[in-house]
Description:
Helix content is 36%, strand content 27%. By secondary structure, it is of the alpha+beta class.
Amino acid sequence: MRTEVAIIGAGPAGLLLSHLLAQDGIESIVVETRSAEYVASRIRAGVLEHSTVELLDSVGLGGRLRAEGDEHRGIYLQWPEERHHLDFVDLTGCSVWVYGQTEVQKDLAAARSAAGQEIHYEVTDTALHDLDTERPSVSFKDIDGTRQTIEAAVVVGCDGSFGPSRAGIPQTVRESAERVYPYSWLGILADVAPSTDELIYAWHPDGFAMHSMRSATVSRLYLQVPNGTDVSTWSDDRIWDALATRLGHGQNGWRLRPGPITEKSVLPMRSFVQTPMRHGRLFLAGDAAHIVPPTGAKGLNLAVADVAVLAPALLALLRKKDAGPANSYSENALRRVWRCTHFSWWMTTMLHISEDPFDAHLQLSQLRWVTSSEAGAAGLAENYAGLPIGF
Length: 391
Ligand code: FAD
Ligand code: DHB
């Protein structure tokens, strides 16, 4: 097989990249280890920042998001006895949208399928070759067991944190920075109307809790739990009791509405950045190059931002014979990656309980500052909702 761009991974980064390239008349082939159904139903992120929504709109992918997603002006930040609303629209002019990654993934898959995009699902043994040459390739075993090779001008690794692309950057060149956090999230999906109009991020001495949502009838909630937590030790009643305690704030008779839990899982948290994001004819985008802890709602948005920078760089390289934007892709993308890495670390360490009581004083001081000072609030709002594409 021959194409211009071989894309490894059909998550949000891979499918959106194939969509953006197709709009510029550039051909691609996508390979993916999982089935289309599995990829579309993975429960992951839920919040789209302003620039993500604008980009999806601008490439014809915003229709269902605008019709079925939920626009939010801001978030609530709270600690026991106090709940404060931060209005991102007042602070930055930008809102965010609650629209699950599952829905983004379905919209992307439908658009690519309508355009006749070649995607090989359920492949095995993906391997990258000749990345230092102008004829790199990707080999894999197709669903029927046939060995295939895609020869391309460029290979893009959009294969998340466990894919092979990251290691395609030679060991002598690559560097990584990592922070592992001493806590995880227990996440649940429940068939119950959200008990809040906007997301609640709650600091509590028992541990962080968050109330998010997927629709008018489906709630998504998270609890800070120790690393290594066995999900079977958390019965539904124990989860709802802990959420009610941590999210309660003793004002206006607010109550958390419990309901049937349909999904329950534990997510470890880490920050990770591998540099550079390009070597020879291999480019990395999304989780293949960087991971953030989920507290800042950045993972999916960062994957979108990477490919928004990469697609025009590949257009210049392949059509205009201008290697400039491709040569500066890594540096350009990493500016936003590090901004979001810092923001996600900051939100995480401000809101999660640690073993050191000194931290609790700093956290509460920080929370009081961002909820009482316009400058503090605007900084959080700009990072959460308002960074422009190409920041
Ligand atoms: P992915 O979505 O991981 O896609 C990579 C794709 O590559 C996958 O489909 C994978 O199957 C495929 N692949 C892997 N290996 C190969 C191979 N060898 N050959 C071919 N294909 C391969 N972010 C938030 O902002 N908020 C959240 O609440 C949140 N929750 C999350 C929960 C979980 C459990 C995880 C894992 C992530 C979560 N994230 C969250 C992060 C967010 O979902 C990711 O940042 C986002 O999916 C990144 O998109 P991506 O396309 O770069 O990678
Ligand atoms: C969701 C996840 C997040 O990490 C976050 O910060 C906000 C919302 C969610 O799953 O809805």
